[in-house]
Design brief:
By secondary structure, this protein is an alpha+beta fold. 32% of the residues lie in helices and 31% in strands. The chain has 8 helices and 9 strands. A hairpin with a 5-residue loop joins strand 8 and strand 9.
């Protein structure tokens, strides 16, 4: 009852038997309005004729997590992460489903992906050894490097030899937990030409 996440106790035929206060607040219903509904009534991804298959999966797997949508009382649809658990108690079977609203998380991820893909600035993700794991499209637009040419390569291969020592010291500071801004050095494009860039790490 005191859980932050929404909790639903569901019968084998999909009827909601009990919900906690968080479920009521998230979906905008009174408890008396939710209890007695079926899961397909609040989850558009679960048509009534698919519930039996879902229940058999819950029963066979015991517990698993998936993403779905839930409809609120005022007609909004929220994105959710649901963990279902098969339980038996006093000879009866139950599905205890724990639901978390991930709408904000999905919006944040979408904004991050747009920034990564559309930014005119060079962006990359490196491991602690300095190997490039991911590079955004700006690398190809500005320096003609394709991501598959950069991945698994050390940043040292692209930095001017005269700048590598200072850049190495700065990156080691980052590994120790210090923020480094305005790190400037020359970087080589795919044609072998050198360009000055400034990093925030």
């Amino acid at each position: 009852d005191r859980a932050v996440d929404s909790v639903f106790w569901v019968s084998p035929d999909g009827e909601i038997l009990y919900v906690n206060e968080a479920a009521c607040k998230t979906l905008g219903f009174e408890r008396s309005e939710l209890v007695g509904k079926t899961v397909p009534e609040i989850d558009p991804n679960f048509p009534a004729d698919h519930w039996k298959t879902h229940w058999e999966e819950v029963k066979s797997r015991g517990s698993f997590t998936f993403e779905s949508d839930h409809a609120t009382k005022d007609g909004r649809v929220i994105q959710t992460e649901v963990t279902v658990n098969y339980l038996q108690y006093e000879g009866r079977e139950y599905n205890c489903a724990v639901m978390r609203d991930i709408t904000l998380r999905r919006k944040t991820e979408a904004q991050r992906d747009r920034l990564w893909n559309q930014s005119p600035d060079l962006m990359c993700i490196c491991d602690l050894h300095g190997n490039i794991r991911q590079a955004n499209p700006a690398w190809e637009h500005l320096l003609n490097w394709k991501e598959d040419e950069l991945k698994q390569q050390s940043w040292r291969l692209f930095v001017h030899p005269d700048d590598r020592e200072q850049t190495e010291r700065s990156l080691q500071s980052v590994v120790r937990g210090d923020a480094v801004t305005d790190l400037s050095h020359r970087i080589r494009n795919a044609k072998g030409e050198w360009h000055w860039i400034s990093w925030n790490i």
